[in-house]
Design goal:
This protein has about 280 residues and is mainly β. Helix content is about 10%, strand content about 35%. α1 crosses α3. The longest helix is centred in the C-terminal third of the chain and has 13 residues. The N and C termini lie far apart (about 55 Å).
């Protein structure tokens, strides 16, 4: 079955005056207009295309790469607004329609907004919306663990900071104290998942969290501590040669790293050695 708004691999079935007809496994056909045909394409060849509905609401294929597929989010520029809604440039000839009912605030021609896309169940057309909440997951789950590096797309400003889309799937928040310079809607950057909140909502840091935020020598000690079951028989009075043999660093760097771990309350320092917390 042909999937509107998705990439799919189809087979070139036959040639016609207007282009190639491609078919899926069920035998359903869709036209790839001659505009997109290249000399290396031949009947029987598989080809990856994007399928959408043209201005006459007929299914058509293209080798162009749109800015988003169904369920994805992208920062799109509004090219026109009329009495029915707005239209956005998303990288293929037919612009994406965003009806007024799908606009969180009235969209303005020439400006850009974060948009997602779905197939309207009544018209079977691809439709855009800036009302993103229903299309995002809002609670931390097994797909996101603390400290994981993630891709962020900024989509709104709040009193607390910036709302972001995480890995094209989750809604998260970057607090103002994480930000050195103001962020803007549509900005893409890397972030790190912070420890889970009691309400399950997702907070994001722009800096590594947990062990990843620790300088390399301290991280090395912490990793050794964890692999040894939570205890290491070393103190700031340990023999420098033994420290070098175990950690590969000087005693001076060892003491500095150990102090950093203690100040961050990641270890306990006792007379007989280092204990994990």
């Amino acid at each position: 079955m042909l999937s509107i708004g998705e990439y799919q691999t189809l087979t070139i079935n036959r040639e016609a005056q207007q282009g190639f007809y491609l078919k899926d496994e069920s035998g359903a056909e869709v036209l790839l207009p001659r505009t997109y045909i290249t000399p290396d394409m031949h009947p029987g060849d598989p080809i990856e295309v994007f399928v959408y509905c043209d201005s006459e609401d007929k299914e058509v294929a293209t080798t162009l790469k749109p800015a988003l597929t169904v369920g994805q989010f992208a920062y799109l520029r509004i090219t026109d607004v009329n009495e029915f809604g707005a239209f956005a440039d998303w990288g293929i000839p037919k612009e994406l329609f965003i009806p007024f009912r799908n606009q969180g605030t009235r969209l303005i021609k020439g400006r850009s907004y974060v948009v997602t896309m779905y197939v309207d169940e009544f018209s079977n057309r691809l439709v855009g919306t800036t009302k993103l909440k229903p299309f995002l997951r809002h609670e931390l789950d097994a797909g996101l663990e603390k400290g994981r590096e993630v891709d962020l797309l900024v989509y709104a400003r709040t009193d607390l900071g910036y709302k972001v889309i995480i890995n094209q799937t989750y809604a998260g928040l970057v607090y103002d104290n994480e930000v050195v310079e103001p962020l803007h809607s549509g900005q893409q950057l890397k972030g790190y998942i912070k420890p889970a909140r009691e309400d399950g909502k997702i907070d994001v840091s722009l800096h590594p969290v947990g062990h990843q935020s620790i300088e390399p020598n301290a991280r090395k000690i912490l990793e050794k501590l964890e692999s040894s079951g939570g205890f290491l028989p070393f103190t700031d009075k340990s023999d420098p040669d033994l420290i070098w043999e175990e950690f590969g660093i000087s005693k001076k760097l060892f003491k500095k790293a150990l102090g950093a771990l203690y100040r961050q309350r990641l270890v306990d320092l006792r007379e007989d050695g280092i204990y994990g917390r």
